[in-house]
């Protein structure tokens, strides 16, 4: 009965590496939503506002279904992207790969649940999750068999009008690249992620050199040993948050590509499990 999980159980599920948690509604007898890291960010912000009013244990026993309703009421009047209720986005096992990929891209989501085309005796429609990396991995295996048939694959990524680019590149883009410094408040970084509906933000030094990437999923490090209940979110810096992330999961390597990398090389990198994004960097000059 996922609809009645407490916030504590949601946190534990996501700490175990689940990027998405299906929300089962007993009343409707189906999956009615998906809980993500962005939900935890919103829960965390609401907990921080109420921590002085309600006890820690009482806050953690709030159910996910109650949180969903409270979130809708709390943000319902604000013009915040993605805060309005919408039907669950899903695909069927009979859908073709192109339509599945377009569903993910057009709805700006990282994955989409796959439902059975016909219900069986179990009554549970969810089969699996389709992700862009999984689709890219399949496509790359096919493209590499006949790369000569797709000349665009040999183009440098900097010459193709996709992605989000920084202002200094001079590329025309409807979306400019957001960056943050280590000393910036984490709350500001989280606001950028939610407002722009992006999953990560590059962390750079004063010279604009890449130091790390802070992702929505990194917020789960605050759930380790209930750290979120012992800190003031407004006083936490990006550097503090990264240190907590390192303590929980260890140091990590940023996934990057060069501005001279070909589209096929980029697609190949993005098809690797765990690689959800690439930061485009300039080749080093001597």
Name some characteristics of this structure.
286 residues, alpha/beta, two-stranded antiparallel ribbon, 14% strand, disordered N terminus, repeat, signal, CBS_dom_sf
Short description:
The chain has 286 residues and is α/β, with parallel strands linked by helices. It is built from nine helices and nine strands.
Descriptive overview:
Helix 6 (132-143) crosses helix 9. This protein has helices spanning 7-15, 37-50, 56-60, 64-75, 97-106, 132-143, 186-195, 238-249, 263-270; strands spanning 21-25, 30-35, 91-92, 111-115, 126-131, 200-204, 210-215, 256-258, 279-281. With 286 residues, it is an alpha/beta fold. The chain is flat, with a radius of gyration of 20 Å. Among the domains are: 2-132, CBS-domain (Roll); 146-174 and 255-286, no CATH class. Helix content is 32%, strand content 14%.
**Quick one: CATH class of the domain at 2-132?**
Alpha Beta
Structure classification: alpha/beta
> In CATH, what is the homologous superfamily of the domain at 2-132?
CBS-domain
Helix count from the secondary structure assignment: 9
Range of strand content = 5-15%
Question: What characteristic shape results from the CA principal axes?
Answer: flat
- Please give the number of β-strands: 9
CATH architecture classification of the domain at 2-132: Roll
| SSE pattern, N- to C-terminal | HEEHHHEHEEHHEEHEHE
Biggest sheet details: 3 strands, mixed
Helix content: 25-40%
- Give the oligomeric state of the chains in this entry, treating copies of one chain as homo and distinct chains as hetero: single chain
Mean pLDDT: 75
Rg calc: 20 Å
CATH topology of the domain at 2-132: CBS-domain
Strand order of the largest sheet: 3-4-5
Low-confidence stretches: 1-8, 51-56, 77-83
Query: What is the rounded distance between the termini?
Result: 59 Å
InterPro entries: AMPK_gamma/SDS23_families, CBS_dom, CBS_dom_sf
Pfam families: CBS
Keywords: CBS domain, Repeat, Signal
Protein name: CBS domain-containing protein
